[in-house]
Amino acid sequence: MRRSLRAASLALMLSLAGAWGAPAAAAGAGKAPADLLAQGRALYLQGQRADGSPLVATRAGGLEVAGAGAACVNCHRRSGMGGAEGRSYIPPITADALFTAMPVGRGASAIGDGRPAYGEASLAHALRDGVDASGRPLDFLMPRYRLRDQEVRALQAYLRTLPQKPVAEGDPVHFATVVAPGVAPERSEAMLGVLQACFDEHNAGPKAEQGRHKLAPGMQQREGRKWQLHVWKLEGPQENWGAQLARRASEQPVFALVGGVGGAQWSPVHGFCEAAGVPCLFPHLEAAPDAPAGFYPLYLGQGAVLEAGLVARHVARQPRAAARVIQVLRAQDASAEAAAAALRQSLAEQGVASSDLRIAPSAALTPELLSQAQAQDTLVLWLRPEDLERLPSVAPAAAQVFVSATLAERDELPLPPAWKARTLMAYPFELPQQRGRRTAAMRQWLEERGLALADERVQGDAWVACKALRTAMLEAEDHLGRDYFIERVETNLERTTATGLYPRLALGIGQRFASKSGYLVRFEDGKGMVAVGERVAP
Prior knowledge:
The chain is an alpha/beta fold. It has helices spanning 2-29, 34-46, 73-76, 95-98, 120-129, 149-159, 185-203, 241-251, 267-276, 304-316, 334-349, 385-388, 405-408, 417-420, 436-448, 456-476, 482-493; strands at 56-58, 64-66, 83-85, 88-90, 144-145, 173-179, 227-233, 256-258, 280-281, 297-298, 325-330, 354-359, 378-382, 400-404, 423-427, 519-524, 528-531.
């Protein structure tokens, strides 16, 4: 059911994607036929020819690459804005970079010799022979492609659409944030308070110059375009979310979705972002969506799904004689179900048996429900605070117990003492005693804006999303396209000190989860939370 629901949602989104992306593509495409643009796009992004065969090229040293390995996107990125490969600079190949003359003193070359504008013949020479429009050899990183004349024309037509700019110069930039059904009002309000303060801060303009931060005479601070935040509250079952998102986007197109809050049911939002080509930046979720990886949705972490990996890694390293893993969860708790499914799969791959014990939504948690556990078993409790508090005061029959930090919702574990002594908590955040400096900056920011610390995890994720948004938008201001915005987030995230509650954030090309590691922790009298071993990436 879950798989068919996702397929239906993605099919709906794909049917809407053409209308959403058409204005940006058409603006730069001129009169190029749609089939020619499609051929160029497939060559650029996938390294695939019109007949389905792979594009073939030769790199320095005679190494042959084909298909996806030969695609232009690998170096020049989806935006066409290029980047860096080691010490080599990869220049932009957008329309304004290629198809206008480059005067002396400008351009990708360090010596800035300039060059004439590219045309079809000089572009073909560059692609096939590695020679630029002025006759100079291109960098050794540039492959030599085996391209037909029609394919050169198709690539030229597609490159003329780059960079795609969905926001007209000078217009305000519209963003939205999504609130899923079932989210407690205090959680959504905590997230919205941070985002609105972030937008207000941006719209207030640059801070006044003071002391050493004063600019030299004749210089002035640049004021970016205004931002407007829209709140999209979804309603009803998730099979209806796609239509709601499409309607909202039709009524008010947005540049990106920022922040957001939900549980584990997020796949329709993920599908919308990917199909419509809209960045989806760092929503606060309890569990990563069960959806195919994409380019546009970005997440801070996998939540309870990463915790399942931490538990599986630990269990697999223990003696396995007669070992069983029993997962305990409330039926109809989507986040617990997602975590249990991830752990079940990981354990099965390592030959460890597991079983699930589901408690009906209205059933009381009694000792009899847990009586099937034996001394050599492991219990994994995908339970929330109200259930953890109701565990029987007698010690558990199982020798080892695991709980979820995400579902427990706070660091202070609400367990009876007899249980706490045998319990490890999967913890996908930095240890509290080590993250003080970073959370202190966030707390100060909240205080200066009159915001109480109501939900540190939700507000921390929104704060990271705010910082990432502001940095990427500042850098992308002159080339404000969605693809370039995503690329700037990828590049900048590893450099930021605004990591919220996480130990480290980084997004390599193709990576969509910024935090990839966590701890197992235990609780000691007088010491509180203590790590069991090092931080690991399961």
